[in-house]
Amino acid sequence: MDEDAGSSSGGGGIAGTGDPLRVAVIIGSTREGRIGDAVGRWFLERARGRTELELAVLDLAAFDFPVHYPGRATEQMTEFTEAIAEAEAYVVITPEYNRSFPASLKQAIDFAYDEWQTKPVAFVSYGHGSAGLYAVEQLRSVFTELHTVTLRNGVALDFLQQPLEGQPGDGGRDRAVGLMLDQLGWWGWALREARATRPYVS
After folding, report:
1. Looking at the whole model, is its pTM more than 0.85?
2. Distance, CA of 95 to CA of 129 (rounded, Å)
3. Backbone angles phi, psi at 13, to 5 degrees
4. Using CA atoms, how far apart are residues 122 and 111, in angstroms rounded to an integer?
5. CA 166 to each of CA 33, 42, 178: distance values in angstroms, whole numbers, following the listed order
6. Interior/surface letters 139-148, b for 16+ CB within 10 angstroms, e for the rest
7. Model confidence over 43-87: pLDDT tens digits?
């Protein structure tokens, strides 16, 4: 798990109380030739420096998960699940494949259950034409089943309309990142306090 101390361009964010909010950034594609790692770097460049957030990168391509679900969790499965448990909020970076999200991402999500509960999830999606929004809509259903809170605002990258780095002076995507992280922080701290105050009933 790579760590990257974070912040967002386009604003100072909303300060939390106590320790920084622990945010896991999950890169969901494992395909050869993918651009998910480039999208991840793009996002982290914009999140870096936000001192109220502590970012940890979980790149699924760096894990050696089994092809078939084993009877007992492997070391890599346990490592991933423990990272999910440690995080207090999530940013999922996903492409769209055939109007859905990658099987590699679904496999990893299913390794954990209780570890996801009562935590917020934000999405950075990418694709051609739909900007990955079909994938996000399906992920919302999955994460609802896991008792998370999914954010209304996300970041959607359409590579037919604009390359990843965009055009000089175009701050629309940067503003979207900033707003999403503001909302993620609000929900993250609110739910941290709620978990400390009363047990969740699932």
Report:
1. yes
2. 12
3. 80, -170
4. 19
5. 21, 11, 16
6. bbebbeebeb
7. 999 998 899 999 999 999 999 999 999 999 999 999 999 999 999
CB atoms near residue 22 (< 10 Å): 18
* 55, β-bridge pairs: 4, 23
Query: 179: Cβ–Cβ under 8 A, 6 or more apart, which residues?
Result: 153
Residues near 107 by beta carbon (within 8 Å), at least 6 away in sequence: 65
Residue type, 93: I
For 93-110, the pLDDT digits (tens) are 999 999 999 999 999 999
User: Is 123:41 a contact under the CB 8 Å cutoff?
Assistant: no
What Å distances lie between residue 174 and 29, 39, 46, 106, 194, CA to CA? Answer: 22, 13, 7, 28, 30
Q: Token pair of 73, please?
A: 């969790």
3-state secondary structure the chain: CEEEEECCCCCCCCCCCCCCEEEEEEECCCCCCCCHHHHHHHHHHHHEECCCEEEEEEEHHHCCCCCCCCCCCCHHHHHHHHHHHHCCEEEEEEECECCECCHHHHHHHHCCCHHHCCCEEEEEEEECCCCCHHHHHHHHHHHHHCCCEECCCCEEEECCCCCCCCCCCCCHHHHHHHHHHHHHHHHHHHHHHHHHHCCCCC
Q: Six-digit token pair at 193?
A: 């306090």
Nearest partner of 105 among 74, 130, 83, 136, judged by Cα: 136
